């Protein structure tokens, strides 16, 4: 059973998402609230697998709530997914650095919402295509960090290769096929890289891959 915490200051959004999620036999909404401070308290009380948090909320916004969840060792199993509108994607990078596992836009299709919750519960990075393009655009238009590459020195060559493929958006099965290894070995490479780089989840691993220069945007990927 995937346990979900739902936080949004718009009751209509919460009720709509909850109605969809509660219909699924493998998903349970364990609590809901309307601000980031409540999100933090409920996360500690219920220890959900996935926390769906709005970005803009009263009392404490979603990014600060995410940052505090990520900093709490007792909440290491909570995967935060931010809820956003297309016009707010300038917050993508800040939220990923805060510890978000990914983003969903609020006009997502019902079947995509359900799939996304399951993906997030597995610990995989989750970014809507439009928001992924925004993230890539940042690395095309802004100077690359200079010293970030030193964090990758602890990785083996195979781990670096797996991280680079993950940053391109490949799943473990796709990484395995590209590297001619088993999916379990691919997952092991990714998990070891996350441990060595102190990445909370796959999304932060992707950010590190771009920051370090291990992955650079390809031609045509710069369009926001």
Explained architecture:
The chain is of the alpha/beta class and 224 residues long. The chain has 10 helices and 5 strands; from the N terminus they run E-H-E-H-E-H-E-H-E-H-H-H-H-H-H. Helix 2 packs parallel to helix 3 (62-71), helix 7 (157-167) packs across helix 10 (202-212) and helix 8 packs across helix 9 (183-197).
What is this entry, summarized?
This protein has 224 residues and is of the alpha/beta class.
Task: Give the tags.
224 residues; alpha/beta; 5-stranded parallel sheet; 10 helices; globular; disordered C terminus
List the helices and strands and how they pair.
Blueprint: E1 2-7, H1 11-22, E2 27-33, H2 36-46, E3 50-54, H3 62-71, E4 79-84, H4 92-98, E5 102-105, H5 110-121, H6 129-141, H7 157-167, H8 172-179, H9 183-197, H10 202-212
Parallel strand pairs: 1-2, 1-3, 3-4, 4-5
Helix pairs in contact: 2-3, 3-4, 7-9, 7-10, 8-9
* Radius of gyration, CA atoms, in whole angstroms: 17 Å
Quick one: how many beta strands?
A: 5
Span between termini: 36 Å
| Count of helical stretches | 10
State the order of secondary-structure elements, H for helix, E for strand: EHEHEHEHEHHHHHH
Helical fraction: 40-55%
The proportion of strand residues reads 5-15%
Give the uncertain stretches in residue-range form.
Answer: 219-224
Structural class: alpha/beta
The oligomeric state is: single chain
Largest sheet: 5 strands, parallel
User: What would the principal axes of the Cα set say about the shape?
Assistant: globular
- Sheet with most strands: strand arrangement: 2-1-3-4-5
Give the rounded overall mean pLDDT: 81
């Amino acid at each position: 059973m995937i346990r979900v915490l739902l936080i949004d200051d718009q009751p209509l959004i919460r009720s709509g998402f909850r109605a969809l999620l509660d219909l699924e036999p493998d998903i349970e909404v364990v609590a809901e609230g309307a601000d980031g401070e409540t999100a933090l308290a409920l996360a500690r009380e219920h220890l959900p697998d996935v926390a769906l948090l709005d970005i803009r909320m009263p009392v404490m916004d979603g990014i600060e709530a995410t940052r505090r969840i990520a900093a709490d060792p007792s909440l290491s199993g909570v995967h935060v997914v931010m809820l956003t509108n297309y016009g707010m994607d300038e917050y993508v990078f800040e939220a990923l650095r805060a510890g978000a596992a990914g983003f969903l836009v609020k006009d997502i299709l019902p079947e995509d919402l359900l799939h996304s919750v399951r993906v997030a519960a597995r610990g995989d990075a989750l970014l809507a295509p439009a928001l992924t393009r925004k993230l890539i655009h940042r690395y095309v238009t802004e100077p690359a960090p200079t010293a970030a590459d030193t964090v990758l020195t602890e990785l083996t060559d195979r781990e670096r290769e797996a991280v680079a493929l993950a940053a391109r958006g490949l799943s473990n099965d796709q990484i395995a096929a590209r590297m001619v290894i088993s999916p379990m070995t691919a997952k092991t490479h990714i998990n070891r890289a996350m441990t060595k780089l102190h990445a909370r989840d796959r999304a932060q691993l992707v950010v590190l891959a771009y920051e370090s220069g291990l992955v650079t945007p390809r031609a045509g990927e710069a369009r926001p």
